Amino acid sequence: DIHMTQSPSSLSASLGDRVTITCRASQSISRFVNWYHQKPGKVPKLLLYAASTLQSGVPSRFSGSGSGTDFTLTITNLQPEDFGTYYCQQSYSLIFSFGPGTKVDLK
Amino acid sequence: QVTLRESGPALVKPTQTLTLTCTFSAFSLNTSGMFVTWIRQPPGKALEWLALIDWEDDKYYRTSLKTRLTISQDTSKNQVVLTMTNMDPVDTATYYCARTVAVAGFTFVDYWGLGTLVTVSS
Lengths: 107, 122
Prior knowledge:
The complex is a heterodimer of chains A (107) and B (122).
Chain A: E1 4-7, E2 10-13, E3 19-25, E4 33-38, E5 45-49, E6 53-54, E7 62-67, E8 70-75, E9 84-90, E10 97-98, E11 102-106
Parallel strand pairs in A: 2-11
Antiparallel strand pairs in A: 1-3, 3-8, 4-5, 4-9, 5-6, 7-8, 9-10, 9-11
Chain B: E1 3-7, E2 11-12, E3 18-25, E4 34-41, E5 48-54, E6 59-61, E7 69-74, E8 79-84, E9 93-103, E10 106-112, E11 116-120
Parallel strand pairs in B: 2-11
Antiparallel strand pairs in B: 1-3, 3-8, 4-5, 4-9, 5-6, 7-8, 9-10, 9-11
């Protein structure tokens, strides 16, 4: 199975900050990475698919990049509703896998 | 509006078999590029992908749980069923079913059910 890792595991940030989260795959997966955001007690929400394509309705302050094994999620101008946990997920194989998550909280 | 709803027991005993049903609406699993996925999340922990079934009735399982999982569909009822045998306390989690779609060759989860908490305890 393809193993996904994320860094950092957690970070503290202030409103208006630029935040970068990294995801790494155990093998090359082209651009088959999706990013989700989950607030405490809530269902995850899709942010981006195909590494960099913004899901409909997701604010443009979210962006993604990367290909192969290394991927990045960037949030510019962090807003109150952006706190929570972010997960990357690979869909290169239909045996999906998620990263361990990156928790973003208020500094 | 796409909706998914998980149903099943809230409490199961160790060694028992868990059966969860996902009932969905506003899409068809007969449509090319359509999938239903099961994902779980132990309390306070990360998402864990479990199984997926597609429009051609192909099935995919988490390798470490493959011997314990079975996913099936009843297209006439718009339902997907997940069974997990030999339940253990470590299987305590919120279990989600989710719609998964393929767009331009890329597959992603776009709609989630609210999840159902399953506790494994004697």
